[in-house]
Write a structure and sequence with these properties.
Keywords: Hydrolase. With 247 residues, the protein is of the alpha/beta class. It has ten helices and six strands; from the N terminus they run βαααααβαβαβαβαβα.
Length: 247
């Protein structure tokens, strides 16, 4: 049996706690004055970045998501803390720099190991750049004592970036690229894993079974996106369900 499991990266493989902590550290007093908090500011930033990244792509003005993150942040900070008449350049850079050091979600590396040992090739499909995605996984393995690092030997070949087709998710061209790279003639089982249901819908449309992990969205919106083939509250449980379904 051969198969593949394609993981979304931002929010699914890696969380944003360090970014949220930096927002709080950089703007603690201003956040309190504006009666808001770092998590709310981060979520606004993340969702506005995803929106603008996608809209730029749809407008034939594809822009790498790292540039969108950086460009959008001052606007988000002003919206969250309108008493700030100007956003200095130094503090936003401290925040965006944290995107280079995202921490892996609990169970990520163990799940990759178990899936690969079960005959399922693991891929990472990202809105981000291939190089920065490789760096995140490399850091995760470097920080994990005793974890099997076999996946690193073919990591570069397993990263699929929207930059390669200059089309942002959920553009069909991006998912067609993932399908072309992963669903080859000898693949019997093709899975797509994400923490947000909007990512699963276009993946299903090109032929993947879908696996939703609930730690980001918490509440499924099946009336819009349908039921995932499997769902779980953690990557460990999700990978176990994927493996069980292929036996």
């Amino acid at each position: 049996m051969r198969g593949c499991v394609v993981f979304d990266v931002f929010g699914t493989c890696f969380g944003f706690d360090n970014v949220i902590d930096e927002i709080h550290k950089s703007y603690a007093q201003d956040l309190e004055r504006a009666d808001t908090n770092a998590q709310a500011v981060f979520l606004s930033w993340f969702y506005q970045t995803q929106r603008d990244f996608t809209y730029l792509s749809l407008s034939d003005t594809y822009t790498p998501i790292a540039q969108v993150f950086a460009a959008v942040l001052p606007r988000v900070l002003r919206q969250a803390m309108p008493h700030l008449s100007k956003i200095d350049e130094s503090r936003p850079k401290l925040i965006t720099d944290q995107l280079k050091s995202l921490q892996p979600r609990p169970g990520l590396l163990e799940s990759i190991k178990n899936l690969e040992e079960a005959g399922l090739d693991v891929y990472a499909f990202t809105n981000g750049a291939a190089a920065s995605t490789k760096a995140l996984f490399s850091q995760a393995y470097a920080q994990s004592s005793g974890m099997d690092t076999a996946f690193l030997s073919h990591l570069e070949a397993r990263i699929i970036s929207c930059d390669q087709v200059k089309a942002a998710k959920p553009d069909r061209k991006a998912y067609d690229l993932a399908k072309e790279r992963t669903i080859t003639d000898n693949v019997e089982h093709a899975w797509f894993v994400a923490a947000h249901q909007w990512d699963l819908l276009p993946a299903r449309n090109v032929g993947y079974k879908t696996a939703w992990v609930s730690y980001e969205e918490l509440e499924p919106v099946t009336s819009l996106f349908g039921e995932p083939d499997v769902s779980a509250d953690s990557l460990n449980d999700l990978s176990d369900k994927i493996i069980a379904s292929t036996r």
